[in-house]
Amino acid sequence: MPRYLRFDQLDTNDPNVVARLARLLGRPPATDPGDARLNLGLFDGSRLVGCVLASSGGTVRISELAVDAAYASERAELVARWCDLAARWCRHRPLEMQGDEPALQRWRALDAPLLADLGYRLDAVEPVSSGGSGPARFRSRWEAAAAVNLDPRALPVDAVYPVGEASYQVRVVRSETHWSRLAPYWDDLLRTTPSATGMQSFEYLRAWWTCFGLPYRLWILTIWRDGALCGIAPLRIEAERGFVGWLRELSFVGWLTEVDRPTFLFGGQADACLSVMLRFLADQGALWDRMTLHEQDADGPCARTLPAFATRGYLLRMTPSTRCPYVALNRPFERYMAERSRQFRKRLRAACRRLEAKGELRVRRVSDEAQVREAIGRFRDLEDRSWKRGTEAALGPLHGQFLDILHTWLGPKGALQVLELLVAGQPIASTIAFVHGRNYYSLHIVHDAAWADDTPGNVLTYFELEECHAKGYAEFDFLGTCVESKLHWTSSVRDTIDIVLTRSGPRERLVHLWKVHLAPAVRGALEQRGLLERMQSLQRRAWARLWGVPDL
Description:
The chain is of the alpha+beta class.
């Protein structure tokens, strides 16, 4: 039977969670509620099949560590993912566990080698007074190891494939700790991979995973030849509940709803690495039901190769995705502006004059590590006064946390920047930008709604582009939201496609028929009659009632 594995944190103050834990453990769980950040559950669909409950202090105390007997093979992944949380929130603190003799034997046989690989060593085992009759109990203490193996070659080889006269090995990374070992190699491959963006950099993806990665299974494929790392496929597996039941989606680490144009980091060996990856995916087909590669180059290696792969019992769907405007900064700014339409330049000059009439107009770029966080706070204040407030375009709490972590990673490099437009010292528009190499990415822009008639967003973009030309960046990337307004600034656009590869079965063929043939026709008919938005609202409500989740 397929397993739809996913992770989630456990709130032990929730009676429903406590009841699930009791069924898993065969008894009530420990009374200590622990630290909500460190309570991790492993689920198969909606069923709890494993847990780690812990509390933090000077020592991290694990009160429960259990896995359903039928899922014993998943224990290592559960422990590794929990260690990711412990390293994040309680770095370098020792671990402590208590249990009876069978538990002690499990720790030594199963957990000690794994924990040693993740940076802990078994320091001491001592008896604990039981206060009466009953089985003897023990306390084990695990110290953070002084020296940790940082070589990614220490991971086991999962498969070996010949390509021509060469032999390639695949190693799978399933935890953040092992992912960290790839840091010295990651961006070297990124730089040599055509069409790769800064959103596939090591720091950017690690920040994303820290904020949004908890529910997913990490599944980064590393491809090696003669001891050298030649390819990285940054993938994750999501157990997703749909109208036709659970399925497992394989996709890139990162957003499916943001414009990041992900790619496989295969450097100069794209054809060989892609061949190895697809053979490995076929061999591991029992782990995934659908692969979604969003925002791909329509002429890229995946678009060329996957149609042939789809003949092996898979269904293939390619659909248009985002349009991503950009400006090549390869000529003087004055010449670039002269290429814009006369009417647009006239409106822009008029907007500048209106703002100048209301006070001193100036632009402030914030790139200093200590000041960027404050500038992001001012961005959030502006957002509360903008049209984005309360909409999906606004930065949610997790997105704000993501920017904080990204700043922690990139702040010392000056790679996360904020540009502010001020009138008489008052910020009226702001943009958050990300710099990687010679590419400049405009992540978010916002303006005070009270100033909307003066189009401060356009004025800010004008000054932003002027600075980018002067600083010698190679490209200004608008990314792909609100495309029509950005096409005033450029005629250069990257059109992308979504590639969806699904295992062929009765359910999958039915979904494929709907997605490829029926849904586009229904959507077109609803749009023509002005009913699309209403039907989407009804669909969200039906989903909420069916699965008992809040109205989306």
